[in-house]
Amino acid sequence: MEIMDQEDFLTLKLSISPSHDRERKMKRTRTTEEISNYSSPTHGIPEEGKIIALLETRETMLKKDHNKRSNEGESLHLIHSLLIAAASVNENDMTSALENLSQLYHSVSLRGDSVQRVATYFADTLLAHLLTRKSPFYDTIMKGPSPEMEFSAFISLYKASPFYQFAHFTANQAIIEAFERDGSRALHVLDFDVSYGFQWPSLMQSLSENATPTNKISLKITAFGGNVEEIQETESRLVSFAKGFPNLVFEFHGLVRGSKNVKMEKRKDETVAINLVFHLTSLKTLSKISETLSFVYSLKPSIVVLVEQEGTCSSNKFLPRFMESLHQFAAIFDSLDDCLPLESDERLSIERDHLGKEIRSAINYDRDNDRSCPMFEKMETWSGRMERRGFVGVEQSCRAVMQAKLLLKIRSHCCPIKFDGENGGFRVFERENGKAISLGWQDRILITASSWCSGV
After folding, report:
1. Neighbours of 306 (CB within 10 A)
2. Global pTM value
């Protein structure tokens, strides 16, 4: 099998090691040959028997509710084993993959450090990737959280980490500034992926502060959601919140994602804002992205806000996708050290019911025939698409940058906050000559926000 050279491997490991171990000296890890020749309790058992034995090992190890802490050398060895198992899966070498996974399940822990935790979910995705969807074991491994558990995990992550708040507050700031430039009293936001609607309460509050009982501001949100029930719950949540702002006239119009009956007639003296927060990535194909951007451009909005996770996870090839996903999610798991203690039940819920689900989806996307690989790409790629479509970048204001840095200061709980020039913690990066702003962990860019106008 093709294994990366030692320099590349050490670079990968350093970028995803736990923050509290990062200053320790690197310890020598076992060689590829040593790891490949580990003895395994599944050795000599037929393939189905190996899977059953591996599942039993997995369940036994994951049920142990103890805190495992690995040092730098053990973390390095764990990631090394994970990459070797991924290479075996990529080559359809089930025997080697099962042996390596068996060894992995003796080292991972849902309550260990960030490397052990993220390795648990990636080990599961590798095991699932060896199976067909019809396998009786597949659903056991890939079973997702209930809607209630997923919602609870999202709330916990939203409160504890700046990840989603950075995206929402930065986008809202750009919308507010465009609204102020227009000098109108009516704002119409077209949200292409409203989800739980958590982005909009802060916008309502900001608008209400500039309104009076005799000079009210109108806010209409046309929002796309996954299904009717989800849209109705989000509408109820937002309508209830809007009642606390008597200076605001609020209207919500929900549509199921993919609906064709979108009517966007611009009212007189109305600011139209397009919200593309974590939406274009979900489209997964270039044709759908192009179609969406063409539609958005035709609306001639005052502002388009684009927020996406950054990465290079657009490859349909398994191993590159696995590697990039490991980079991305390891950084996110590691960043939780800055937000919640390892022993926190909220943290376990976030990792299991939110991040774990995303990992399984990213790695095993190709098990669903109608899905394509998520389009996690660099800011430069997204900027090129926007510019070719006719959009012009809008410079991020000083208020947006200061707001983002203040958010990090407020949300830093477990580690001292560090800004640009310091290799630690959450960081804010100004990019694209001031036309984009990014949230990063260490030197890894997590998400980037940019603003655009139609240029006409």
Report:
1. 28
2. 0.84
